[in-house]
Amino acid sequence: MQNLRAAGMAVLLASRVALSGCGGSGARTSTEITNTTVSGGQALIDLKRALDAGAITQREYERERARILEE
Questions:
Q1: For residues 5 and 42, is the Cβ–Cβ distance under 8 A?
Q2: DSSP string, 20-56
Q3: What confidence score (pLDDT) does residue 7 get?
Q4: Are residues 55 and 10 in contact, defined by beta-carbon separation less than 8 angstroms?
Q5: Which residues, 6 or more positions from 9, have their beta carbon under 8 angstroms from its beta carbon?
Q6: Exposed, middle or buried by CB within 10 Å (0-12, 13-18, 19+), for 5?
Q7: Which run of H or of E encompasses 16?
Q8: Mean pLDDT by 10 residues, the chain (71 residues)
Q9: What is the pLDDT of residue 13?
Q10: Domain layout of the chain by residue ranges
């Protein structure tokens, strides 16, 4: 089950990264991922797994980690 969550988080984060590059006219785009079934601690674990798997960059990891910790 945890592997499924980690894979799901990696897919969601990869989608967010892909969408952040859209809007080639310089328009700012934003996508928010909300998953109420994952606690903050589990979200941090999943985020680290996504980083370790290469699904996100260090910069993206730090940004998402800060967002999770602010909640």
A1: yes
A2: HT--TTT---------TTS-HHHHHHHHHHHHHTTSS
A3: 57
A4: yes
A5: 35, 38, 43, 46, 47, 49, 50
A6: middle
A7: helix 2-20
A8: 57 57 56 58 94 96 93 80
A9: 62
A10: 1-12+35-71
